[in-house]
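hey team, just a heads up i'm posting the complex here instead of the shared drive bc the drive is being weird again. everything in one block, sequence lines first with there labels, then the predicted structure for the whole assembly after. its two chains so it's a bit long, scroll down
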Amino acid sequence: MLLALLVMAVVALALAVPLGVRAGRAHRAHRAAGQSRRRRSPAAPRPELGYDPGRERRAEQRARQLLRSCVNEEEWAMYRDLGFLRVAGRATAGRGSAPAAPGYAYLVYPHKPIVAFVPDSGRLLSEYCVEFPDMHGDGNTRLPASDDVLAKWMALTSDESRVIGQANMHLVGRQLDPARVRRDLWRLSEWERRRGAGSSVGAHGG
Amino acid sequence: MKFLRMKPGHGEVLLTEGDPGSEVDEERLVEEFRRQLDEGMWAAVPTEHPSSGRREALMVRDYADIPPQAERVIFFPRASGG
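-- predicted structure starts here --
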């Protein structure tokens, strides 16, 4: 009996030793691989991080300064206070000196469609969906919000038919809530009343 | 005169600057102007009417169209339907 137990123990030991050695090797290999990954990771190139809030905020600050340097004081104050610009329609506003009162104007929002409206009645005419995607960047094609507004302002004040021709025209309501646009027109009139400027679309070029 | 370009994630970047009256500078400005338009950019010069103070932009399609008194040209991506 004792002999049988002894034989079984020897057999069990003979079977267990190779398994233990194999497990030990696997454990050491796993640890070595982990250490290697940890050593390699700081120097390895990281994938490009996508959205960086700090970088976008700095870009927007620069864009605001550029916009401010291009538009007049009233337009800058309008954008700063209300978040959009009004640009007079060039077809009737004339260019250069003493423009006539425009028959229509545009509301220019950042990264939203341009809205055409009639200043006298507040009637909303249409939405012009237009973007300025930069296809030569590092994958981010979207300009800072204030650059988008400035691009629209420059395009509308210099070559209105060209940018409107590029846009997709829709009835108001496709992307923008008409009630919100009407509210913005009301905010604009209140803002002008407080400034004591009255309706000055034509006089200031929108 | 400065050439600025709107850039996603950066705001405007200075591409180059120079005195258009200098032959060397002008050559560099012309080259950069063409390069930007070849990349599909639109170019505009912010202007202010001397008597009314009215501000607007002037779209330029050729280097020769840039007003001589212009201090900067802003390049921005061309419009497309959104």
